[in-house]
Amino acid sequence: MTHRTSLSRSRIAILAILSLAVSACRKETAVPAAANAAGAENALVISRHDDRIFAGGIAPPAEKVVNSVAQDAKAAEVGATLFTGMNCDGCHGGGAVGAVGPSLTDGRWRYGGADADIYRSIAEGRPKGMPAFGGVLQPAMIWRLVTYIKSLPVPKDVPTESWQ
Amino acid sequence: MHCSVTTLALSLASVLVVTRVSAQTAAADGDWTMPSKDYAATRYSGLAQITPANAKKLHPVWTFSTGTLGGHEGQPLVVHNTMYVVTPYPNVLYAFDLTKEGYPLKWKYRPNVDANSIGIACCDVVNRGAVYADGKIVYNLLDGHTVAVDAASGKELWMTKIADLAAGETTPMAPLIVKDRVLVGASGGEFGILGWVKGLDLASGKVVWTATNIGPDSLVLAKAGTFKAFYDKGAQLGQTTWPADTWKHGGAPVWGWMSYDPELDLVYYGVGNPGPYNADQRLGDNKWTASVLARHPGDGSLVWAYQFTPHDSWDFDAAAEMILVDLKVGGKMRKTLVHFDKNGFEYTMDRATGEVLLAEAYVKVNWASKIDLATGRPVLNDSKQTGASRGNVKDICPTLEGGKSPASPVAYSPRTGLFYASTNSMCMDYEAVKTAHLKGTPFMGINSPYHAGSDPNMGAFIAWDATTGKRAWTIEEPFPVWSGSLATRGDVVFYGTLDGWFKAADAKTGAVLWKFKVGSGVVGDPITFTGADGKQYVAIYAGIGGDWLLLSGDYKSDDPNDVREPADFARNLARHTSQGGIVWIFAL
Predict the structure, then answer these.
(1) What pLDDT is recorded for position A156?
(2) What angle, rounded to 10 degrees, do the helices at A139-151 and A115-124 form?
(3) Could you give the CA distance from residue B76 to residue B33 in angstroms, rounded to a whole number?
(4) Catalytic annotation on B190?
């Protein structure tokens, strides 16, 4: 179901990009239909990150992803247990203040701080050594980790460190 | 060169006291061809132009930005008027032409290193250096490869995968080359690896043998008739000292320095911590973690082993260097091995047998009252033992950073008979919790904040007599001292500090003769060499980093998405330094 939906949305995206290209350069010949179809068939499910720059100012189509346990205290508690149990603290430090891995308590995010972005970081891994936990954690558990991480308080003044 | 007859005679006599190896390499003292200067790991140079009388004239003559921000541990090599520098990840190898003005590059070598190693390496993306032999520069890439590069052309000769990054193995250690064997090991004591050393063929890079540090005798290469521990009896010690199969994820990494005695044909290296940090999950001695192992380099067979910290419950890796010098202990000249362990004791041992001749605390120690020389075992303080069942155990000294970090190798001067060591005066609370092994993730189970020890300062640079187990002198430092040491025939010793000073001190008195602010904290190891002009030069890396537990990270400025609080015990450190790799060369 989901798969089919995203395929059709990707198709719309490609059409949108093509129409943009055509309007930008009228003499541009259209991409042959066969190539267009093949591109759509091979399209991956993509996600939109609102902190990225959009080519042509047009955001990629994205499904609305909702963390159904957002701000749920019990879910955060389960997430806290998982944070230790899955050895997240071994890299990010106890309380996620940063160690080998970056701090998750500064309100700043390498790969996006929306719940869906954090979900992807956990499920898919990241290229500097963040393991992909999607093979060992059910989605419901990953959302609870996300809720825990988002529950951590961010200090009032992050940018300034003063010795005065 | 100024050299009176008396000093020459003195130095000759002194060199004879060291091993035959040192005597052989003394002839080529203008170069620095292996990480620890010589097989005996003395970090002592026969160069003597820089003296206590003229050291105040030292000044920088050359600098180079390495273009990388990781902790700059290790040291350059100087071979045939070329200086070789390996950077932290991404492990670029630079070759500088020391015969030309400004020391331009002859070449640089840029390997393709897996970025996943950044997050898997426990303690920053450090590299502890390269080694030169047979026209090759050999070193480890952080992601588990050993490479050999042609020293003249920079062309890659071979690259061998030695470690499994996906299992938590990384390779920051400096290899040692003995004859046609390249000896390497892996880090990963925080990932539940099954620690090992390997012997590679220098010509081809092929793995000739692999020996684990824990597990059954067949894997450890402890063969009947060859292996004999001085204190421990019985077979299968690397297996029977663990519950069930826990040795399979028992850690035992090799991330420090190796040394070699050609007469005994033995390679010595220290083994790191057992995993996990929660000792309740691995009752028993956990041999041979936190130990020194002596092996034949040709086939890897184990000859003897000694465990400094049985059932290590404090992360007291024994990864620090083993210095091989002949010393008079108890009225007799002995072929000794001197080791400053993380656990706070300095051990003077017989390097042929593994007998402990002397073990004295070189910093404040409270986890054990002493080492019993009859059994070789520490006499434990029960209130400082840890494990999940004991909750949060307060005020243990030293910390898991060590009384001295293994990343900060000691130097020995045969002229003074003293060892020069960078030390830490800190204590810790240690709260262990149950943890499960999950491949590719840390296997630790620990929460252990540090605090300052009882000393007025958190670090010191000390001179130590390993025949008596006493300090000769101390230079107090406000922060833990994390650099290696260099001793010279000119009776000047060198070290650097975390707040970014590079210092020269009088080897006999400990008087600070000169210091210079080098732009970033020093965790590297100084070397000295003779330039193409015949002058003595001293080189050091600046570039703070190396241990995320010690350095909480507020001195980092490179990632706007990673802003951290300072460590409680060192709130001022970032006031004095930030990241950045620089190679410095000084001269009179």
Answers:
(1) 84
(2) 120
(3) 9
(4) yes
Give B133-181 pLDDT, tens digit per residue. Answer: 999 999 999 999 999 999 999 999 999 999 999 999 999 999 999 999 9
Task: Return d(Cα B146, Cα B148) in angstroms, integer.
Answer: 7
**Alpha carbons B246 and A154: distance in angstroms, whole number:** 39
Note the pTM of the prediction, 2 decimals.
0.91
Helix axes A139-151, A73-85, angle to 10 degrees: 100
Q: What is the CA radius of gyration of chain B?
A: 22
Active site residue B457: no
How would DSSP label each residue in chain A? Answer: -HHHHHHHHHHHHHHHHHHHHHHH-TTPPPPPHHHHHHHHHTPPP----TTSPPGGG-PPP------TTTT-HHHHHHHHHHHHHTTHHHHH-GGG--SSSPPSSSS--TT--SHHHHHHHHHH-BTTTB---TTTS-HHHHHHHHHHHHHSPPPS--S-----
Q: Does A87 contact B435 at a Cβ distance shorter than 8 Å?
A: yes
Element (H, E) at B421: strand B418-424
- Least CB–CB distance from B565: residue in A94, A97, A163: A97
**How far is C-alpha B469 from the geometric centre of its chain's CA atoms?**
21
Angstrom CA distances, B385 to A108, B62, B309, B363, B454, stand at: 39, 50, 12, 19, 20
pLDDT on residue B320: 98
B587: β partners: B59
Residue with tokens 């520069």: B137
pLDDT value of residue B26: 44
- For residue A161, which residues of chain B lie inside 8 Å, CB to CB? 554, 566, 574
DSSP B243-290: STTGGGG-B----S-EEEETTTTEEEEE---BSSS-GGGG-S--TTTT
Beta B411-413 vs B136-141: how paired, if at all? Answer: unpaired
Give the gap in angstroms from C-alpha B192 to the nearest C-alpha of chain A.
12
Q: Looking at CA atoms only, how far is residue B524 from chain A in angstroms?
A: 20
Give the CA angle between residues B258, B261, B265 to the nearest 5°. 105
Distance, in Å, from the CA atom of B93 to the CA atom of B149, rounded to the nearest integer, reads: 9
**Amino acid symbol at B504:** A
Say how many residues make up chain A: 164
Query: Is the Cα torsion angle A78, A80, A82, A84 positive or negative in sign?
Result: negative
Which pair of structure tokens corresponds to residue B392?
Answer: 């949060």
Closest CA to B156 of B166, B165, B146: B146
What SS3 string covers B425-450? CEEEEEEECCCCCCCCCCCCCEECCE
For the record, the structure tokens of A3 come out as 């798969």
**Count of alpha carbons within 13 angstroms of residue B564, beta-carbon side:** 29
How does pLDDT run across B507-564, given as a tens digit for each residue? Answer: 999 999 999 999 999 999 999 999 999 999 999 999 999 987 667 678 888 999 999 8
Residues B413-440 pLDDT 10s: 999 999 999 999 999 999 999 999 999 9
